[in-house]
Write a structure and sequence with these properties.
Helix 22 packs across helix 28. The chain is an alpha/beta fold. The chain contains 29 helices and 26 strands.
């Protein structure tokens, strides 16, 4: 299961800082705690964070070489020298170039912008571009968002008689270029109070140096776009620039930004950091990825409304094309990993494909991010063209992808990056060696625990603190982003009183959640698959949620936006609660295994003598395997007793990193990690990703096709002696057996119910009412089977919705035998096969 971790560990010093800020600013303890969690530890910092203003910006002349740069630019303007701004093709570079261009143009400069092509030139300065600029009469080159490593290119410019001013935010790994000015907050030979500016932030400091803080106001919308898009920490000066820039976007954006907002289908005044990062920035980035970054520059600098609308629409179309290519690529990668990979061994994912077959070099970086996020492993995707591949790498917390690639950099033509992302070019023939060496490096340098996702939270939130006024206070902390994540709180042992799915295909989950003796509305986007487990009783869960305001019908209420939720299994009572829907889920496995596999049921069950000779292990040996490694071990349990034993074993042996679920694992990252599957759907269990699959002695007859799975025999182990009382197959069969009297009793009960009494919130409630009314003792498997047969025979109509199940008897149905139902036929063949096996065993 994912690790739930606090953003900051609680210490006496942490408590002291909270108290100082709470008392000094007169704010709630919750807000003071959130500030300290974000590294805001003194009153001055906190006051500036709560109320960011341009006055809080540092003196730009604290940056190295700033005075020299300002003097050289002023000389160029006054003497009419041609200036070239050398930018980059991402949003940071485009906005930096646009802002500086507009500012210098306003000062009367003879200025142009040069942005290298992503594919033919690559990132940063290159000598051919320097020569082109010289040929056009350029006397001064100002780089934005690049240049810090351009030692040779700057030297060439000097030899050609051009001066260069470097403004960049990337770290320099060697000697500085011999430019007339090198402005970066991260120079080791200089000290600047804030070192996390984006490229557009450094360009903004140059504008501030030349025109004062008031000169920035006109360009704040551009500065905010680049700052948010470059995923720099939204703290310090970045917070000021982003906050004031978002205000500008929502009140008086320039024509190009306004057109981009309309093209994205957003309302004016609704822009926040999230919408910049996920809706506006991708459209600007699509220019450099799919065609030319000059489109983005033209959009942000145009004064023509029609041109702005036309370019914004073109970027919208380019982004749609990018999304289609990206989605197809991600789907292909997932399919290859699932069907051809081995995630118990592949701790770093490396895949390659032909550029002409959908592996567009402009989208492999985004696709690698998505694959890395879904499988929670470092991911490298390589686009091949001719004899060369272009690779893009993304990583996970705790694994430095730059160091990993540095370990094999003898294979690369070009290579660069940082801890979480990198890029390279490589000869095609070197890719197999790259894979082998990176896998070896990962196994030697990566702890298995890094493969378990980490979900961070801001600590516990007490019920008395959960108010609408708190929601208003939380808005003071916007904009949220890197370094200032949206506040999320941990709620331990919360109980789900009720839930139902909403949205297309029931993907989302609405809930009533009880915590601290109070009931809260909750929504979990993408959590619809958890509904079946949560129904039928008060289930304890740990959740991480944002606290939000939800307005419906003019009434404002608190709502938890659940970001992550996991079942709590602390003791045997929790295990029993988790097992309540076992027979409901067993029916799903039965349908998949028996009903939808025509080759599965032929009336013949393997006898014990015919089963493959699977290796046998003791319970202790199985536990040792789970404790020795966090990956590659899987237990299957297809009886209630077996499921109870497996979950209790996990609790008692403190195997806390073991994933557990009904049917199959829904999260990609769980594949290959140690796990327990209850009532497994065999066709959806990804066996190839496990080194050891453990079955429970006595349950083998419940897997009629398992021995047919290719390559499985040598990896299957049977745990013997797990049930001290001895699992009797005939007892299992009794709980799965449905005879004609059961059908008669159910039909009579349904027929006797008056209108309005045929609606239930779920199958478990229906089973309970039936047993209470008739004295029967059936479970959800038996009920769902009978209802399925009745429906197939046109005896009943079943309306199964997200929030209820409705069963109505058909008036005057045609008399039919149970054996006319295909479901019944296959069920009888299956159950009789089990009964025959049981007799042979006896």
């Amino acid at each position: 299961m994912p690790l739930y971790l606090p953003l900051v560990d609680e210490t006496p010093e942490w408590q002291r800082c909270i108290e100082i800020i709470q008392d000094g600013l007169g704010i709630s303890r919750v807000i003071a705690r959130l500030l300290v969690n974000r590294g805001i530890t003194d009153l001055q910092q906190a006051a500036s964070f709560i109320n960011p203003t341009l006055d809080g910006l540092h003196d730009p002349f604290l940056l190295p070489d700033m005075a020299t740069a300002v003097g050289r630019i002023r000389k160029a303007i006054s003497s009419g020298q041609r200036i070239a701004i050398y930018g980059d093709y991402d949003v940071d570079g485009i906005t930096a170039a646009s802002a500086l261009y507009l500012f210098l143009k306003g000062k009367g400069a003879d200025v142009e912008v040069y942005i290298p092509d992503r594919y033919s030139e690559g990132y940063g300065m290159n000598c051919q571009a320097v020569e082109q600029l010289y040929a056009r009469g350029t006397k001064l080159i100002i780089t934005v968002d690049c240049g810090i490593t351009a030692v040779d290119e700057v030297e060439l410019a000097r030899q050609l008689g051009m001066d260069v001013i470097v403004t960049d935010h990337h770290r320099c790994s060697g000697n500085l270029p011999r430019a007339c000015a090198v402005i970066t907050p991260s120079r080791s030979d200089h000290s600047y109070p804030f070192c996390s500016l984006a490229g557009v932030g450094v360009a903004a400091k140059l504008i501030q140096a030349m025109g004062g803080a008031e000169a920035l106001e006109e360009y704040l919308d551009l500065i905010a776009l680049g700052t948010v898009a470059d995923v720099v920490p939204l703290l310090g000066e970045n917070r000021i620039l982003a906050a004031k820039g978002i205000e500008r976007i929502n009140t008086s954006p320039r024509l190009g930004v306004e057109a981009l907002i309309k093209a994205a289908g957003l309302a004016q005044g609704s822009i926040d950091a999230y919408r910049i990062a996920f809706m506006l920035a991708p459209r600007l980035n699509a220019a450099g990825r799919m065609s030319t970054a000059y489109l983005g520059f033209s959009l942000l600098t145009t004064q023509d409304e029609e041109e702005a609308a036309r370019i914004a629409q073109q970027l919208n179309e380019e982004n749609s094309r990018r999304q289609q290519i990206e989605n197809a690529l991600v789907e292909e990668c997932i399919d290859r990993l699932i069907n051809s990979g081995d995630l118990s061994a592949e701790w770093i994912i490396v895949l390659e494909g032909e550029e002409g077959e959908g592996w567009h070099p402009g989208v492999i970086g985004i696709a690698a991010s998505k694959i890395s996020e879904q499988f929670y492993r470092p991911c490298i995707l390589i686009s091949l063209q001719g004899d060369t591949g272009v690779g893009s790498a993304r990583s996970i917390e705790g694994f430095n992808i730059y160091n990993a690639l540095k370990h094999v950099d003898d294979l690369f033509i070009r290579f660069g990056g940082h801890e979480m992302a990198a890029g390279f070019s490589i000869p095609r023939e070197a890719i197999p060696e790259l894979k082998q060496r990176l896998l070896s490096y990962a196994h030697h340098s990566m702890d298995e625990s890094l493969l378990i996702p980490r979900n961070y939270h801001d600590g516990l939130l007490m019920p008395q603190d959960i108010t609408l006024s708190l929601v208003q206070e939380l808005r003071q902390l916007e904009p949220f982003g890197m370094g200032n994540p949206p506040p999320r709180f941990l709620f331990c042992n919360a109980e789900v009183e009720n839930c139902w799915t909403v949205g297309n295909d029931g993907k989302h989950l609405k809930m009533s959640v009880s915590t601290g003796q109070r009931l809260w509305d909750a929504i979990g986007f993408g959590l619809g698959d958890k509904k079946d487990y949560l129904l039928g009783g008060r289930k304890k869960v740990d959740i991480i949620a944002a606290v939000e305001e939800n307005e419906w019908g003019g009434v404002k209420k608190i709502q938890f936006n659940v970001k992550s939720m996991q079942a709590v299994l602390n003791d045997r009572d929790d295990v029993e609660a988790f097992l309540e829907p076992f027979y409901f889920k067993f029916f799903d496995a039965f349908l998949q295994e028996i009903m939808y596999n025509n080759d599965c049921i032929n009336g013949k069950q393997l006898s014990k003598a015919e089963w493959p000779a699977f290796q046998q292990v003791s319970c202790e040996e199985a536990v040792r395997c789970f404790k020795a490694s966090k990956v590659g071990n899987l237990i299957l349990a297809s009886t209630l007793e077996g499921a109870r034993w497996a979950l209790n074993l996990m609790v008692e042996e403190e195997m806390s990193h073991t994933a557990f679920a009904y049917g199959y694992f829904h999260e990609m990252w769980e594949t290959g990690m140690n796990g327990i599957l209850l009532a497994p759907v065999i066709d959806r269990v990804l066996f190839r990703h496990y080194r050891r699959i453990f079955l429970l002695e006595g349950e083998l007859p419940l897997y009629p096709r398992l021995h047919l799975v290719e390559g499985l025999r040598e990896r299957v182990y049977v745990i013997k002696g797990w049930n001290s009382q001895g699992l009797l197959l005939k007892d299992v069969i009794e709980r799965l057996d449905v005879e004609r009297p059961h059908f008669v009793a159910l039909y009579k009960w349904l027929h006797s119910r008056r209108p309005g009494q045929n609606l239930w919130p779920g199958v478990s409630k229906m089973v309970w009412q039936f047993n209470q009314a008739t004295g029967q003792d059936i479970n959800e498997f038996q009920l769902r089977l009978m209802l399925g047969v009745f429906k197939e025979l046109d005896f009943v109509r079943i309306d199964s919705q997200q929030a209820y199940v409705k069963v109505e008897c058909v008036q005057n149905p045609r008399s039919r035998e149970l054996t006319e139902s295909v479901l019944y036929q296959k069920y009888r063949a299956w159950i009789e096969g089990l009964q025959s096996h049981c007799k042979k065993e006896e």
